[in-house]
Amino acid sequence: MTFMSKFKFASAVAAAIAVSATGAMAQKTLRFVPHADLKILDPIWTTAYMSRNHGYMIYDTLFAMDADGNIKLQMLGKHDVSADQLTHTMTLRDGLEWHDGQPVTAEDCVASIKRWAAKDSMGQKMMTFVDSMTAKDAKTFEIKLKAPTGLVVSALGKPSSNVPFMMPKRVAETDPNKQIEDFTGSGPFIFKRDEWKPGNEIVYVKNPKYVPRSEPPSGVAGGKVVKVDRVVWKPMPDAQQAVNALLAGEIDVIEAPTHDLVPLVKNAKGVKMYSWNPLGNQFTFRFNTLHKPFDNPKVRQAVWEAFNQKDFLEAVVGTPEFYKICKSMFPCGSPFASDEGMGNLSESNFDKAKALLKEAGYDGTPIVLMQSTDLAVLTNLAPVAKSLLEKAGFKVDMQSMDWQTLVARRAKKDAPNAGGWHAFLTSWVSADILNPVMMGFMNASGDKAMFGWPNDPELEKIRDDFAREGDVAKQKALAIAAQTRVTQYPTHINLGQWYLPGAHRDNVSGWVAAPAPVLWNMEIK
Amino acid sequence: MASFIFKRLLATIPVMLFVAVFVFLMLRMTPYDPAAIIAGDNANADQVAAIRKSLGLDQPILSQFFIWMGQILQGNFGESFFFKKTVTSLIADRIGPTLSLATVTMLLSISVAVPLGVLAAYRQGTWIDRVVMGFSVMGFSVPVFVIGYILIYLFAINVSWLPVQGYRPLSAGFGEWIRHLILPACTLSVIYIALIARMTRASMLEVLSEDYVRTARAKGQTEWKVLFRHALRNAAVPIVTVIGIGIALLIGGVVVTESVYSIAGLGRLTVDAVLARDYPTIQAVILLFSFVYVVINLLVDLTYSLLDPRIRY
Fold it and tell me: A300-323 in b/e burial notation, b at 16+ Cβ within 10 A?
């Protein structure tokens, strides 16, 4: 036996011993590496995606969005709307129980909707239409409206932050501005708080009393059938190390390996990749409309003329397999996606950009462009923006900082040369920007809008009309009107759609494609 | 001696107070907003303001400081902004892995580096000396994470002898505990082996030319006794100093190693807290680290008097 043969033999023996020792225990435990650590356990208190994902594990929703973008009944067995469209009667399906064994009641749901609506922007909008919410009996409640709106179903069925998760009344009555302390849900998994080690492990066990719907799983809708006994989330700060652990079989699933590691995973034995979020994400350039020169819509239009999506997508993602040039403001593949009204924008027409700048009287004020340097998917965006802006005749002062500093600074309304800003780049999960009401950056209500504070009554009227409209065809026309208006009064610029598949061991199957990484239906062979 | 220890312990109070004020002010002066981080990317200004109020961050800085100091004097280090757990319990959860890693690393480093340094000095100018010094230069030059990845590739992925990541407490069994510590401790110890071996060699070279070493040889002592009983003991003071500094530096080294090996220890808690601007956790961890530095310095000083009877306090 040569030295190498002895070496490999010893390795095989060691591996066999390790497998036999741990194999039985690991049979029904799914070990999952999320994109970050779970810090906040209240998915209503924060919009953080990790808290949302935790919410999908332990809570359930009244409605849910399927893979085709349709809102389906989830906890509800029945939903009736009166002929005048002013009364929604909702009836819970049979067999729903909280993790403590108590039945889910209509009163629990009313309290949960109230708490969620106090925090969520779409919920707040919905509540402007709501006259009253009352429990009629143990399983039925009624929402009476002041005016008809399509928002009740779309808001209660929204798939991403803040998701209207249902909680027991005693929990839902917690002040919306305080975190909940009781994590009793009615969802497919139970959170093991006693086993939670912040920064290390988050443990869930199968909820044996959960009654899944009979339909097959689709998006975050359908039957949430749990096929493992236990799920352990193992946050790993080092992306390379997460991949190493997957290759070594120490974990089963990675939510999102970084783009640079995808080739390593793709070519590895025993590992598969899966695009669990088919709608992907959207890169976005956000203006601060309060300060010169971006207070002038023509200057903002010039920026749009200077940009092209391919340069941004190539700089960050690199592989065309994982990006899509998408002119629509709403994610391509989603119900309201359309390039109508978008003209020839995003084609790097520098002559047109220069002409617009001249027309707007741009005086050479340097654009304070904030660059985030610690998030791999954002770092390369700002240098591309700088280069394209300079080609169009802008002066750019790119300032580098970590993402959390950027988050704090973008909330400041100060002048850009006094600690404020002109622009920054970010990325949205597509599920958060599916229509003009959901899309936070389209909110143009001035001081009440998100950072950047655009103020355009015309755009706001379109958004309000969209909120009132219940007919999908008419909603689509309003969505096109909204994006057309955004080309005239730019609030932000879509810089292209991108995807990041997950990775799993080849003995894992059943990953459901959805806007959030959901772990029901997954099994280990 | 007792009065020396008492005085040194008393001296820690102003040091800790200075650290507390400094850390508190530094955190408040930085342009960060923990409330914005907690609220998440999609939150509006009202949501962020409500969270800021609930955390007490809307209070004047002086009020925040006195509230915090008042809590500390009662032994309460506050509650993490994020995890809704007391900082004390977070630290208690994390201290085990860090202590284990630090202990195994230092034991490994000392047990390898001191004999190597002695050997290099004894065989000065030979190939043994050159190999030890070559290793030492490499140990200083190669970043910890590179060594970590190489060891993981060789021993965890290629031959699957050891786990890629994670930590098991001693209560899970000595075998599991040490299996999970071998790679991180080897990774982290490279730089300390380099540092201590180099210092041991230099210190030994100085001592080996002393008269009392020649006398010991003339008396017919074995080379082993000459080296380890006579020479090493006299060369020990600078070596102990370096080991003390090494333990203090270990806190910095642990941060990277814990991240690479996914060990949920104090190093990772510090990094996570800093990135998330979790003020109560950052403040408590830095106070703890400062206390550890002070205690290590005290222990090093006390060790001097054990090694060299001429040193008295």
Answer: bbbbbbbbbbebbbebbbeeeebb
Residues A428, A448: Cα–Cα separation, whole Å:
20
Give the model's confidence band at A16: pLDDT under 50 very low, under 70 low, under 90 confident, else very high: very low
Q: Which residues of B touch A11 (CB under 8 A)?
A: 158-161
| 3-state SS class at A208 | coil
For residues B124 and B272, what is the distance between their CA atoms, to the nearest angstrom?
46
Under DSSP, is residue B208 helix (H, G, I), strand (E, B) or coil?
helix
Q: What region does B107 belong to: left with phi over 0, alpha with psi -120 to 50, or beta? A: alpha
Report the chain B residue with the minimal C-alpha distance to residue A180: B84
CA B192 to chain centre: 11
Q: What are the b/e assignments for A244-275, b being 16+ CB within 10 Å?
A: bbbbbbbbbbbbbbebebbebbeebeebbbee
Contact B189, B108 (CB under 8 A): yes
Q: What percent of chain A has pLDDT over 70?
A: 95
Eight-state DSSP code of residue A216 = P
Confidence of residue A254 (pLDDT cuts 50, 70, 90): very high
- Name the residue in chain A with its Cα closest to that of B255: A237
Question: What does the radius of gyration of chain B's CA atoms come to, in whole angstroms?
Answer: 24
In this predicted complex, what is the ipTM? 0.75
For B202, B205, B253, the CA distances from B199, given in Å and listed in that order, are 5, 10, 19
B265 vs A contacts (CB less than 8 Å): none
Spatial distance between the Cα atoms of B231 and A477, rounded to a whole number of angstroms: 89
- The residues near A355 (Cβ < 8 Å, ≥ 6 apart) are none
For B54, which of A178, A181, A197 is closest by C-beta distance? A178
Smallest CA-to-CA distance from B188 within B263, B117, B289, B240 is with B263
Rounded to an integer, what distance in angstroms lies between the CA atom of residue A29 and that of residue A205?
9
Residue A422 in tokens: 């002109």
Relative to beta strand A367-372, strand A396-401 is: parallel
The residue to which tokens 């899966």 are assigned: A274
**Dihedral-angle region of residue A32 (phi above 0 means left; psi in -120 to 50 means alpha; beta otherwise):** beta
